[in-house]
């Protein structure tokens, strides 16, 4: 569970071992599933509407994206926080609106403290169906929250703000200077070696042995 309320925990060693193995497999699978769903939902909920309004009416794409993100955030807050909080406050006997809103926020933000858990009263009608409905609500709410976050992350204003915290990359000009310096150093060594060979060849009545170089020769040339 991503929310992880913590009101139900394994007690035996076997249960704890199974919980570890299940979490190692289940958490990455859940994240991959949510990522795949969010990427597909983003096409229909964010990218297509912004592109359509921008091309159809000619508004600035950045302005359309900003207004769309704000409207999407308000609709998500209404559908997954305020309305569910009202429903929980009416279905749960001991919860007021603030406690119900608190439960929605703690659950959809994946904090999951476990101090408020719905459907724990044994006298509730359709308790099992109520639990299933809460599961679907949490899954849809997590997808909606991720879609909203991804929508805001694609805004140009936030991208420029995030660049402040990025580590600056090495400039291309600096790399060119380093490469040129290395090339010049190698060329100077080669030129000096060629001139030394030419001087030996010009000396009269001398047998020219095969030209070989050692590391000490290059070090002396560099000096």
From TrEMBL:
Residues 4-41, 77-153 form the Potassium channel domain. Keywords: Ion channel, Ion transport, Membrane, Potassium, Transmembrane, Transmembrane helix, Transport. It is found in: Membrane. It comes from Polyodon spathula (North American paddlefish). It is a multi-pass membrane protein. This is KCNK1 protein. Its main location: membrane. It comes from the Eukaryota. InterPro entries: 2pore_dom_K_chnl, 2pore_dom_K_chnl_TWIK, 2pore_dom_K_chnl_TWIK1, K_chnl_dom. Pfam families: Ion_trans_2 (PF07885). The chain crosses the membrane at residues 20-42, 63-88, 100-117, 129-149.
